[in-house]
Every structure is written in C-alpha cells, then in structure tokens.
Write a structure and sequence with these properties.
The protein is of the alpha/beta class. The chain folds into two domains: 2-27 and 289-363, no CATH class; 47-282, Spore Coat Polysaccharide Biosynthesis Protein SpsA, Chain A (Alpha-Beta Complex), CATH 3.90.550. The protein is 52% helix and 14% strand. The protein is built from eleven helices and eight strands. The protein has helices at 2-31, 60-68, 90-100, 117-127, 146-150, 175-197, 225-235, 256-282, 290-320, 325-340, 342-363; strands at 47-53, 77-84, 105-111, 132-135, 141-142, 159-168, 208-211, 239-250. It has an eight-stranded mixed sheet, sandwiched between helices. The longest helix is centred in the last third of the chain and has 31 residues, at 290-320.
C-alpha cells in the first residue's frame, strides 16, 4: 500500500508542479524577447471610453477627473458612462461633472432594469461613434500616458485588442495585499509572454481597448466581459495582447474574506471561459495557439483537482506511515516552502483551492453575470 500511495503522490505532484514550472519557464523566455510587430507611435485614433457603473458614487467623479488628465487629445475622446440601474448618487455626480467640464464629450447610457456589466457595455457599444472602444472600470485609475503607450499597437492590422497591466496601490497594508502582489507579478509575466507568442485572453477590466471591427458584442455568456471579448477577437483571427507599459492602478481587499469573494467570482468566470476554449479545441475551431491554450486549460480546469488529490494522498501517507523517509521528506519540503517561498506557496495554494471551489460551483450552474459590490 505504501508503494502505491508513494507512486500515486509522485505522479500527481509531478504533473501539478511540472505544468507550472515548464509553462512559466517557457513564457518567461518569450517575455524577454522583443515585439515582432510594426506599430506607428503617432497613431492617435478617435476613441470611445466606456465606463460601466452600478452604484459608483464613491469613485465615478475621481474616475472622470482621471480621464480628463490623461495625455491624449480631448477632441478625440468620447466618454460613455454606461449605467446599469444605479440606485445611489452616481448619475447625479456624472451630470454635475458634465456641467463643470463642458469641454469634454460625455454622455450617459442608461440600462434599466439591471442586467449586468456585459449587457450595459453592449448598450453603450451600439451608440459609440468611434472605431476603437476602451473599457475601464470606475474604481481604477489610469497612468497619464496609458493611451499613448497602448493604442499604437492597434495600428498594426493583426492586433485587434490591447489590455494593460494593473498595479495594486495598497500593497503594504496587509499580508493579503502583499501575497496578491506576488500573484500580479507572476500573471503579468505570463500575459506578456503569451502576448509575445501570439495572444493572451487574460484581459483586465482596468484597461481594455478593442477595434470595433474585431468583435461584435461584449461577452455575456461567461460574465468575463474583458477576457471573453478578447477570446472573440482571437477567434476572428486577430491578436489580443498585453502592453506592460500601459499601467492602470487598482486597489485590492486587505482582508482575506474580501480577497476570496473577488477571486472566486473571477475564477468562476475564467473557468467558464477556458471550458469554452476546451470545447472549441475539441472541435478543432480554437484559433488561440495550442501551446498557450492547453497549459492554460490545465491550470484552470485540471490542476486544482490534481492538487486536491495529491494533498489527500500526501496526508494519507503521513498519517499511515509517519516515520517513513517519504513522510519526513514531505514535511521538510513544506517547511522549506514556508521559510523560503512563503508568498508563492500560499498564493498557489489559495488560488488553486479557489479554483477548485469555482469549478464545483460552475459545474452546479453558478454564474456571475451581473456584478456584485464587495
């Protein structure tokens, strides 16, 4: 029995860790390579900035003020505040801002009754007047040069969508935020490497720019309006990339319960997205390269289950054979991780447990289509 458990644990742990190590080493190598894209630095198209809101009275004024200060010709920016049946002072604050900033082209698109973020974005999309739409969540802030850094990549006819790199503003406020910062660094590296290979569909709501010709509607199926729409762009034979110089700022919960709520919702949406990719892959219709899609599908759909099985197997070995060399090795290995790689250890463990929960909830029909305030 010991040999069987030992072999099972070895196989499970090797598969789980091997996917992480091999894939991250692969994308890290690509992340160091230069772009093979010809772009025009002088590319300054007319854009429509879509700001989806639902009860954002605490952030909408600072958001509009932030866009006002961005380094880009104001006559080339149309701002559409896409309201999903707000019940607070959001709309009043928007109208007050409009009256005090007549030089800005701001319009309100209202959806009532409430139908969710993707739905209200599609309402705004139908009335936008420009060839490029930029989506940004109300509770994020742009760096001054974000448009000048990101939009030139859309001058390349092969690129249909661009996203930015999120930076957490409250990293030092708690261990939860510090651990999340480690996660952000790792995912930014992954997204950049995938972008250099071909495309990443891990888009972030703080900044997403799309050519209107590259997609038809924002994704309402998975709830991931950003990443789901990036997938549609790729399926239309465009590239979707992350530009690391295009920085936006966000805040992340400093308490564990807040982190778990946000990440569980996001994990559920991304699992739905990768399930969709898996189905397209089986039908041989997925245009995202297999060298990106297959590892990502493994990370989101299969690896959480593999981790759970390896934990159960390892704990069983330690309980049944506490004085075996293998049990001692497991305990020493965990102790080493806690001493020398604590943040990565906790982040990988927490993220995979969240993914496991999200996978189970997804299988039982749970969907996060309408946004929720946390």
């Amino acid at each position: 029995m010991f040999q069987l458990l030992f072999l099972l644990f070895g196989v499970l742990f090797s598969v789980f860790s091997g996917i992480y190590v091999v894939y991250f080493a692969y994308v890290r190598a690509w992340a160091k390579k230069p772009w093979e894209l010809k772009i025009s630095k002088n590319f300054q198209p007319r854009i429509s900035v879509l700001i989806p809101v639902h009860n954002e009275e605490n952030s909408i004024e600072s958001k509009l003020e932030n866009i006002k200060k961005v380094s880009y010709p104001k006559e080339s920016i149309e701002i559409l505040v896409a309201d999903d049946a707000s019940e607070d002072k959001t709309l009043m604050m928007v109208r007050n801002f409009m009256e005090n900033n007549l030089e800005l082209n701001i319009r309100v698109v209202r959806q009532n009754p409430r139908a969710g973020k993707s739905a209200v974005l599609n309402e705004a999309l139908t009335v936008s007047n420009n060839p490029i739409v930029v989506v940004s969540d109300a509770d994020t802030q742009w760096s001054p040069n974000i448009l000048r850094e990101a939009l030139p990549y859309l001058s390349n006819p092969k690129v249909g969508a661009v996203t930015g790199r999120g930076v957490n503003r409250n990293t030092d406020r708690s261990w939860v935020a510090k651990v999340e910062n480690t996660y952000l660094h790792l995912t930014s590296l992954l997204r950049l490497g995938e972008s250099r290979i071909h495309s990443t569909i891990r888009f972030e709501g703080g900044f997403c720019a799309y050519k209107k010709d590259a997609f038809e509607r924002f994704d309402c199926e998975t709830g991931a309006d950003d990443s789901g729409t990036a997938l549609e762009v790729v399926q239309r034979n465009y590239r979707a990339i992350m530009v690391p110089e295009a920085i936006f700022y966000t805040t992340f919960p400093t308490r564990l319960i807040g982190k778990l709520r946000i990440k569980a919702r996001r994990a559920n949406q991304l699992i739905g997205l990768w399930v969709k990719c898996f189905k397209l892959l089986l039908k041989k219709r997925l245009l995202l390269p297999k060298k990106i899609a297959v590892p990502e599908i493994m990370l989101f759909i299969f690896n959480p289950t593999i981790l759970l099985a390896s934990i159960i197997t390892g704990v069983t070995v330690v309980i049944l054979f506490p004085f075996s060399l293998f049990s001692v090795a497991i305990l020493l290995f965990i102790a080493g991780l806690l001493l020398f790689a604590r943040r990565i250890f906790f982040e990988v463990l927490i993220d995979n447990l969240i993914l496991l929960y999200a996978l189970v909830s997804f299988m039982f029909g749970r969907r996060y289509i309408a946004w929720e305030k946390t």
